[in-house]
Write a structure and sequence with these properties.
The chain is α+β, with helices and mostly antiparallel strands and 195 residues long. The chain has one domain (6-161). It has helices at residues 53-57, 102-113, 162-194, and strands spanning 6-10, 16-21, 24-33, 44-47, 63-66, 69-76, 82-86, 90-97, 118-132, 138-153. The strands form two sheets. Strands 1, 4, 5, 6, 9 and 10 form a six-stranded mixed beta sheet that branches. A four-stranded antiparallel beta sheet has the order 2-3-8-7, with helices on one face. The relative contact order is 0.23.
Length: 195
């Protein structure tokens, strides 16, 4: 099965701007907070505190974008304008805004004014775990992901992209196949007992 890119937008209450001097403006905050539920997407989702470890240590370039638009690059880990690290709360970012890029200055001003206050991330799932909670809702825990990009966005709610739906559908199909197999095994045992 090939990897499918998934996108997640989260509610942010801690995105902030900082002006170091007249030439250096920063946007900082959390891309994701660990072990907190997503909004309901047909299931709930959480990110394990170790989910970003591999992707942050392997050295691949991660882009900082505006609203998942690859034509609106705000920074990258390759150049050092985007810095990412985990702490006890989640995946923290610091994005140095280039004052010579007009849309980057616009994004900075939108964050400063509070009109844009959300973050998102695009990723491939390398390992996840599904469980059913006591209330019957499914919970997906992202255990290991390959981070592709982080985004400043005006839409701070989880998306229900096609990749998300396919991922959930795959889980439901696997769950149904397992239940069907267990039922067939019970039927075989009963048939053998009747012989």
């Amino acid at each position: 099965m090939s990897k499918q890119k998934e996108l997640r937008n989260i509610d942010i209450d801690s995105i902030e701007i900082r002006s170091v001097d007249e030439q250096e403006n920063l946007i900082e905050g959390y891309i994701n907070k660990f072990n907190s539920d997503s909004q309901f997407m047909g299931f709930f989702e959480q990110v394990d505190r170790n989910a970003f470890n591999r992707t942050l240590s392997d050295g691949h370039n991660i882009m900082g974008l505006y609203n998942h638009d690859s034509a609106k690059v705000l920074g990258s880990t390759k150049t050092g304008s985007l810095q990412l690290h985990t702490d006890e709360v989640g995946l923290r970012f610091s994005l140095k805004i280039n004052p010579n890029v007009s849309y980057a200055k616009d994004v900075y001003e939108l964050v400063r004014s509070g009109d844009v206050d959300g973050c998102s991330f695009g990723f491939y799932v390398l390992d996840d775990e599904w469980t059913v909670r006591e209330d019957g809702t499914e919970l997906r825990v992202l255990k290991d992901i390959e981070l592709i990009e982080v985004t400043i966005t005006p839409f701070p709610a989880y998306t229900s992209s096609e990749a998300n739906c396919r991922s959930y559908d795959n889980y439901i199909q696997d769950k149904q196949a397992k239940e069907d197999l267990e039922l067939r095994q019970k039927q075989i045992v009963i048939e053998l007992e009747l012989m």
